[in-house]
Specification:
Elements lengths: L1 E12 L2 E12 L3 E5 L6 H9 L6 E6 L2 E2 L8 E5 L10 H13 L8 H17 L15 H14 L4 E5 L7 H17 L3 E5 L3 H7 L2 E6 L14 E7 L34 H5 L1
Parallel strand pairs: 3-8, 3-9, 6-7, 7-8
Antiparallel strand pairs: 1-2, 1-4, 4-5, 9-10
Helix pairs in contact: 2-3, 2-4, 3-4
The structure holds adenosine-5'-diphosphate and magnesium ion (MG).
The site of adenosine-5'-diphosphate has 10 residues, from α1.
Length: 276
């Protein structure tokens, strides 16, 4: 059963066709990596899945029903940078995610519900390896820790679909390998379907169950933007990964992962929680 059904979606800005004829069925609990050259419309596509943008033509169904007109709690999102609020602590950022999930008016929680939310937020911070950083502000966290926090905040709304736009692209290779392990664990343990944009092919094959490439098939200067990008490759990752089926603590580390990191920690105290 598809979580997302995308049928002949086009996106145009004025005369400029960004995407054309995108049709895609995304299975429940899959992890789709979306790759393609810069400017080919990957972020635009994610924004349509989030309802931040609307298709010019075509339809997008979530669980068989048209997408809600506004972004909503069922679709969590993490961008490459700046998706956490700098003036809130780590706990405050995750609490905000919970409040957004709990109230359609984005209202604050009070009393017993607020205490329960704080407990849940602490558990989420622990799940992403940030138990030690509960009261820190984003500026006091390393890049890797900020992205862990952004993941915790997005997971707070219990999204069925997690949308990731180059979430690990700005991280150093060692830190990125660690956060890949975390990402795999979260996907295995939680009822998530993931759509992740990346320009790193090895990241795509490290994490995904399926790799999709967007590209402009016709791209002559004389085309003047009349043709958009479309799906040019759709590759099932082999051997298949199945959500929830882990060999050992993590899925066969080393099979296709970046080389293991020498030593531990570096600037990322988050590690402790992940390896434990
Ligand atoms: N709001 C907008 N108005 C006009 N053009 C846009 C808008 N958003 C994106 N574009 C154009 O759409 C194209 C695809 O952008 P984007 O989705 O950000 O690409 P990618 O994420 O693959 O690098 C670019 O040419 C960009 O200039
Ligand atoms: Mg982009």
């Amino acid at each position: 059963m598809s979580v997302l059904s995308i049928a002949d979606v086009w996106k145009e800005y004025g005369e400029h066709v960004v995407l054309e004829g995108i049709s895609l069925e995304i299975a429940e609990r899959s992890f789709v990596a979306l790759v393609g050259p810069s400017g080919c419309g990957k972020s635009t596509f994610l924004k349509m899945l989030l309802s931040e943008e609307r298709p010019s033509r075509g339809s997008i169904l979530l669980d068989g029903a048209p997408l809600a007109a506004e972004p909503e709690a069922g679709r969590g999102v993490v961008f490459q940078r700046y998706s956490v609020f700098p003036h809130l602590t780590a706990l405050g950022n995750v609490m905000l995610g919970l409040e957004i999930g709990a109230s359609r008016f984005w209202g604050k929680l009070w009393g017993a519900r607020r205490r329960a939310a704080a407990e849940e937020a602490r558990a989420l911070l622990e799940a992403v390896g940030l138990a030690e950083a509960t009261d820190k502000y984003p500026a006091q966290l390393s890049g890797g820790m900020q992205q862990r926090l952004a993941l915790a905040q997005a997971l707070a709304t219990k999204p069925r679909v997690l949308l990731l736009d180059e979430p690990f692209g700005a991280l150093d290779p060692g830190i990125r390998a660690e956060i890949h392990q975390l990402m795999k664990r979260l996907w295995h343990e939680r009822p998530l379907t993931v759509v992740m944009v990346t320009h790193d092919m090895s990241e795509a094959f490290t994490l995904a169950t399926r790799v999709i490439a967007f590209e402009r098939r016709r791209n002559e200067p004389s085309d003047g933007g009349r043709y958009g990008a479309t799906i040019t490759q759709d590759i099932p990752v082999w051997p298949p990964r199945v959500a929830g089926q882990v060999t050992g603590l993590f899925e066969s580390p080393g099979r296709d992962d970046p080389a293991p990191v020498a030593g531990t920690s570096r600037d990322d105290l988050a590690l402790q929680g992940v390896r434990a």
